[in-house]
Amino acid sequence: MRQPTLEATGRRGPVNWRADRAMLVNEARLLARNPGVVAWTVVLPIGASIVLSAFPAMRAPAKGLGGLSVFEAYQPILIFFTMTLLALQALPDVLTRYREMGVLKRLRTTPVSPALLLLAQLTLILSIALVCMVVMVVVPGLVGAGWPRNLAGFLLAYVLGAWALLGLGLVIASSFHNAKVAAGLGSFLFFVLQFLAGLWLPRPTMPSWLRHISDLTPSGAAVQSLTDATSGHWPSTLHLVVLVVWGAVTTRVAIRLFRWE
């Protein structure tokens, strides 16, 4: 018997918005009970961003960073730190655990579609990441660290970067039915993508060959696009195309591979 796919479930009919709201509230409550997730995805990046913006020396152009300050180099990395962690670790972990426990299968026997659980998870992750991004832009801006000079380019880069990372997270959740395996792969990819984003070695200091590799990854392209937009430039076509390709391909693969059971 063929298992139902995300494509098939997505054709079930109108969304029950009341059930969707209840599902979202329940998932948010469960997430709030995990202090580790809250600390790593919210407190750490926001705290680091505020601390970096509070010191004038961190806002001055730094040697070796291509004219950027330490704050300007790390703000985009911290913004996508939250999204990457949620997309590659939290999302696959929740979905694979629910599949292992039979939660998704049981939901299919109720009037509530299991697609609502997926929608609630995506909404929750996007909401948390968006709030963190706004805080990491507004608070430093208020203390004198400056604002993104190309707001349209900044928002476009953020949306495309979020799409690419969430798509990758869904591919992990779709490809593995064991929560421990999915969590392990998600953790590995998280650190790889953070390295390529410049967390330990800022992109301006990378060797050219490593920076070219970074340009082709969702984290590297997203961080550079945010950096360009913050400086007042439009994100490069290469980086935007990379993000669109990652988003489109991973979304399509996830839809084809995803199973509720």
Automatic annotation (TrEMBL):
One of its GO terms (molecular function) is ABC-type transporter activity. It holds the Pfam family ABC2_membrane. Keywords: Antibiotic resistance, Cell membrane, Membrane, Transmembrane, Transmembrane helix, Transport. GO terms for biological process: response to antibiotic. InterPro entries: ABC-2_transporter (IPR052902), ABC2_TM (IPR013525), ABC2_TM_bact-type (IPR047817), ABC_2_transport (IPR000412). The keyword Nucleotide-binding does not apply. Its main location: membrane. Residues 36-261 form the ABC transmembrane type-2 domain. The chain crosses the membrane at residues 37-57, 77-95, 116-139, 151-174, 181-201, 236-255. It comes from the Bacteria. It is found in: Cell membrane; Membrane. GO terms for cellular component: ATP-binding cassette (ABC) transporter complex. It is a multi-pass membrane protein. The keyword S-adenosyl-L-methionine does not apply. Belongs to the ABC-2 integral membrane protein family. This is Transport permease protein. It comes from Nostocoides japonicum T1-X7.
